[in-house]
């Protein structure tokens, strides 16, 4: 579970990060680098797509400056994956809700992956 987010900082399960990350439903946290800093393109999310998630959430920064390309959005939707794009503060909240709600209500963990841009 994501415990805290503010500009340039995120804490997950007691560990702090000051760089952009990919978070999986398994609580695995991976560094997330992109070809172009404020553009999230298909090649930037390939390893996540290989996990066959049910939902992908993008946190586009504190001010929402980062953008998800049409090709990335189309690839996600074409696979039947739920796509959520929001400012990082709201995206973090949504990630936590989906992760916890699915486990509590459905009895199984929903496969959700979050990409969180921590600045801008």
Outline of this structure?
The chain has 120 residues and is α/β, with parallel strands linked by helices. The chain has one domain (2-117): MTH938-like (Hypothetical Protein Mth938, Chain: A, 3-Layer(aba) Sandwich).
Give structural attributes.
single chain; 120 residues; alpha/beta; Hypothetical Protein Mth938, Chain: A; five-stranded mixed sheet; three-stranded antiparallel sheet; 3 helices; 10 strands; 27% helix; globular
Structure explained in plain terms:
The protein is an alpha/beta fold. The protein has one domain: Hypothetical Protein Mth938, Chain: A. The protein is built from three helices and ten strands. Strand 4 and strand 5 form a beta hairpin. The protein starts with a strand and ends with a strand. The mean pLDDT is 94.
What overall form do the CA principal axes indicate? globular
Helix content: 25-40%
CATH architecture: 3-Layer(aba) Sandwich
Instruction: Give the SSE order as H and E letters.
Output: EEEEEEHEEHEHE
Briefly note the CATH topology name: Hypothetical Protein Mth938, Chain: A
The CATH homologous superfamily: MTH938-like
Low-confidence stretches: none
Sheet with the most strands? 5 strands, mixed
Number of strands: 10
Identify the CATH class: Alpha Beta
Gap from first CA to last CA: 23 Å
Residue share in β-strands: 25-35%
Determine the number of helices (DSSP H or I, runs of at least 4 residues): 3
Radius of gyration: 13 Å
The total tally of domains equals 1
Q: Structural class, from secondary structure content?
A: alpha/beta
Average pLDDT confidence is 94
How are strands sequenced across the largest beta sheet? Answer: 5-4-10-7-9
